[in-house]
Amino acid sequence: MLLPIITYPNKQLKARSQTVVNFDELLHRFLDDMYETMIASNGIGLAAIQVANPIRVLILCIPDEEGNQHKENLLEIINPVIHNPKGNVLYQEGCLSVPGFYEDVERYETLSLKYQNRHGEACELHASDLLAIAIQHEIDHLEGKLFIEKLTYNRRKKFEKEYKKAQKEKK
Ligand SMILES: CC(=O)Oc1ccc(/C=C/C(=O)NCCc2ccccc2)cc1OC(C)=O
Ligand SMILES: [Co+2]
């Protein structure tokens, strides 16, 4: 079922998410609901805190060259830990919890990731390009951090101004 996505400046987004210990049917249903919600909102990544569940769970479904998302590319990442981050890239990021705003953010270029899958089995992957960027963006959510907090001073001022204007127009 579709889950409500909480948006900035909701304070819940600042919570630190807790380690998952029960890899049970309840978690599996939640993962399925996260996927349905992410796809319905045109997202390519979603962290559990964004649907108000403070657990260390994130999902990613990076589009292929044609820009289509395929469920076989879905990654369900639980209790992730980044290893050997390397390099430096700039990429214009967006977030379903900050709708309509896109800003350049600096990230590591490549990294290794250790995590558990929905059955609690230990997994590892090596990421570069958009996958590496998305992993860092989503893991920040598990620490209660949004990409707008990583902006340079001037870009942050630009965001605050635009956000206030957009909020006024909605009223
Ligand atoms: C108006 C609005 O909501 O715009 C959007 C903003 C963000 C998004 C999705 C963002 C997303 O999936 N971010 C995952 C993290 C990530 C950021 C940068 C690069 C890789 C991964 C979708 C939006 O909706 C539409 C229709 O485009
Ligand atoms: Co996000």
List keywords for this structure.
alpha+beta; Peptide Deformylase; 5-stranded antiparallel beta sheet; 7 strands
Query: How much is the average pLDDT?
Result: 96
**Beta-strand percentage?**
25-35%
CATH class: Alpha Beta
- Biggest beta-sheet profile: 5 strands, antiparallel
Figure out the total of helices: 3
Count of discrete domains: 1
Helix content: 25-40%
SSE succession: HEEEEEEEHH
Catalytic activity: N-terminal N-formyl-L-methionyl-[peptide] + H2O = N-terminal L-methionyl-[peptide] + formate
Family: Belongs to the polypeptide deformylase family.
EC number: 3.5.1.88
Enzyme class: hydrolase
Explain how this protein is built.
The protein has 171 residues and is an alpha+beta fold. It has one domain (11-170): Peptide deformylase (Peptide Deformylase, Alpha-Beta Complex), CATH 3.90.45. The chain has helices at residues 25-40, 129-142, 153-170; strands at 45-47, 57-61, 74-86, 89-93, 103-107, 110-116, 122-127. The model has no long low-confidence stretch (mean pLDDT 96). The chain binds the ligand CC(=O)Oc1ccc(/C=C/C(=O)NCCc2ccccc2)cc1OC(C)=O and cobalt (II) ion. The site of the ligand CC(=O)Oc1ccc(/C=C/C(=O)NCCc2ccccc2)cc1OC(C)=O has 15 residues, from β4 and α2.
